[in-house]
Amino acid sequence: MKIGILGSGNMGRSLGILWAEQKHEVFFGSRTAEKGQAVAESAGNNTQGGTNDEAAAFGDVLLYTIRGVNPAEVLTSIDVLDGKILIDCNNYEIPENFAYQPIELSLAEKLASEVPQALVVKAFNTMAQEVFELSPQPLNEYNVSVFVAGDDEDARKMVMSLAADIGFAPVDCGELRFSRLIEGLGDFIRYLIIGQKLGGYATISVETLPEAKNQRLGGRQSSSLH
Amino acid sequence: MKIGILGSGNMGRSLGILWAEQKHEVFFGSRTAEKGQAVAESAGNNTQGGTNDEAAAFGDVLLYTIRGVNPAEVLTSIDVLDGKILIDCNNYEIPENFAYQPIELSLAEKLASEVPQALVVKAFNTMAQEVFELSPQPLNEYNVSVFVAGDDEDARKMVMSLAADIGFAPVDCGELRFSRLIEGLGDFIRYLIIGQKLGGYATISVETLPEAKNQRLGGRQSSSLH
């Protein structure tokens, strides 16, 4: 897969390296060609680098790491995004004292409204840098979820496949509007990591347990959460 | 520990049984003494039953399962709650098509404002009935989180201990205001269980992974979530 990274800071650089290690073709984009090239040089693994425009033109899948910024301010023309998968991995800034505002509109939905011809998919907003260091092994033994939401099912499945490639356990979360809940998870795990001092190896995941052998309690099943 | 269950439906009945199995003294309260007694009779394990007033008087720790209802409407006098630990395990009702409203005020905070002399603790709102069937074994091997928030640290620690008793892995989430995020987790896991058909054995948990042996990516640590 050809992957373009828009904004090659910490997050973009790390995910780009992980995908390049798995033999994907990766292009690091940045505000200037020099900066993008420098990231590629330090990243190795046959990666390339240049401007964000070049990265957007290069990739079939694009990772958008530029939190809350309209792509029209980043790219010469947003037409280059038409029909491409655009992964939004962002969370709102952490407010003073973790006094998060309730999420009325997710960053992913905001992005989708700005580039309606792109296939926006929410993913990779619930783990810290430390977790990427564990990819792909032993990470693939730990069942760490990547929560994936997007209105285009094929795009969602592609991103789930890219998550699995680097050792994560993708969870299909359906439509893009569920990004609101997923960004809420991003808020929660950042609070635990930083505010509650669990550190960057703290992860949040969904796991389906094996069924009980005996049903001794006799309550209603499944829909019984209060 | 003496535990009173206020509202002995599915959730209250199951948790009451689990605690009684661990040799806690449990009293099931209900709108009528007859109903509370009937729950105790079917629950066994030396449990007692009667009115909600009696359950509130009996317990040092109280489980409040009556979603969103002011205790003043349930009890003859709320003075009986003064200084007692009051566990709120509730989530807002699931709206049509899972179109959740953003949580401005959590149910737990609403409850705390209604009974300011009680020590309200949020817990047990992120798992379905099925998971209780696995308690305490093999549940204690699965690291299933109970997210616990409350403004009184001792109360929080007591509820964490009650969660551990029945095989869960308690996670200290700090002040009661973080119930907003925890109730968001409740919304999310109910969507996955029902809407995405993962079923009632789907759980959401926090796990801290072992550190990476090599730090090859070289990004900033810990605060690097986007």
Automatic annotation (TrEMBL), chains A, B:
Keywords: Oxidoreductase. It comes from Hyella patelloides LEGE 07179. InterPro entries: NAD(P)-bd_dom_sf, P5C_Rdtase_cat_N, STEAP_metalloreductase. The keyword Oxidoreductase applies. This is F420-dependent NADP oxidoreductase. The keyword Oxidoreductase applies. PANTHER family: DUDULIN-RELATED (PTHR14239). Residues 2-92 form the Pyrroline-5-carboxylate reductase catalytic N-terminal domain. One of its GO terms (molecular function) is oxidoreductase activity. It comes from the Bacteria.
